[in-house]
Amino acid sequence: MNLPLELFIGLRYTRAKRRNHFISFISLISMLGIALGVMALIVVLSVMNGFEKELRGRILGMVSHVTVSSYDGRLQNWQALSDQVRENSAVIGSAPYVEAEAMLSNRSSVSGAVIRGINPEFEPEVSKIDQHMTFGEFSDLKPGEYGIILGTGLANSLDVVPGDRVTMITPQSTASPVGFLPRLRRFKVVGLFEIGVYEYDRSSAIIHNQDASRLFRLDGAVSGLRLKLNDMDKAPLVRTELRERLSFDYWVSDWTLRHANYFKAVQTEKTVMFIILSLIVAVAAFNIVSTLVMVVTDKQSDIAILRTIGVSPLSIMWVFMVQGTIIGLIGTLFGLASGVLVASYIDVIVPALEQFFHTQFLPTGVYPITDLPSDLKQSDVIKITLLSFFISIIATLYPAMRASKTRPAEALSYE
Description:
Layout: H1 5-15, H2 21-62, E1 66-70, H3 78-85, E2 91-106, E3 109-118, E4 133-135, E5 147-151, H4 152-158, E6 165-176, E7 179-193, H5 198-203, E8 204-208, H6 209-215, E9 224-229, H7 235-245, E10 250-254, H8 255-258, H9 260-298, H10 300-308, H11 313-344, H12 346-357, H13 378-395, H14 397-404, H15 408-412
Parallel strand pairs: 3-8, 5-7
Antiparallel strand pairs: 1-9, 1-10, 2-3, 2-6, 2-9, 4-7, 5-8, 6-7
Helix pairs in contact: 1-11, 2-9, 2-11, 2-13, 9-11, 9-13, 9-14, 11-13, 11-14
């Protein structure tokens, strides 16, 4: 009895056994609808976060967090520059690289490729390519031996296997008595890698940076330095700090600039999916409106009696808002619990469903990621919960206002 009058009556109406069982059924459907919408939002956004995290990890396993290069494409004293950039506490790894484009051919098969020259000693500090080797390892790249590591897609396109040789045709030409001829060099395939991103597996080839410097006429120089950070999200901040520290002879870039369109597209897709799935919660909220309208009609005499004993229209309004809000709150909490549970154990649930239905939702030969990854973020859970609760409150306004406008004389005239 210490509860406010509006809350006490609203809770009593919620717990009371319905004379009209249809109202109870609609209330149950409202709760289940809201719970389903909340659960779907949490699970879908968690899976989308997981895919984004997985793809970002694979892409950043191939590209660098931050890149420092010279404007003329020739970085001579990269060791001194590496020592200088490592003074930044966010930088945990650096490695020189040479990057250029060339043609690779094997008999009748020809394909363009992005050639990356690396230093096998330092490259593992800035990339995860060595963790995705399907054959061979970085140490197989030795200066002067002209070994090459191909992406699996590129190797399939050229129809080569480890041990075969491919011909590299570079844009630089050599003067000869019969004119300018393209530079050719035979490379031995010593390894294969598979990142899981078609763009890189199909077009990337790795050679030793000394071979690349000699082949592309850099005279011992490199194209630049690739840096790895302790937190990839700090890349824009580190880029700004390095620009202020280094002279204007260097160009500093980061992964958010090179892949901005891709990750913006992913973010846009998440936003659109959030809006679409929020409609499930909104549709369930319409059931709350239906439930309260029927409750208000069923409680006309009760409302009239409360008005005659001095209860204000605002209090009447609060009574039915409490009842509708409780329905929304229970549905939201149930959806929250089930959504978090499913998102947390989706790596167990999906394989069990695949085994039960004797199928694979993401076939290995079609999708680079065959498991459903999940990344449950607290911010998403809070946002979804507040949205559902807010929609539930909004849904109670019309029926509650209608109840507050009940006229006691008209409601009791037929009693």
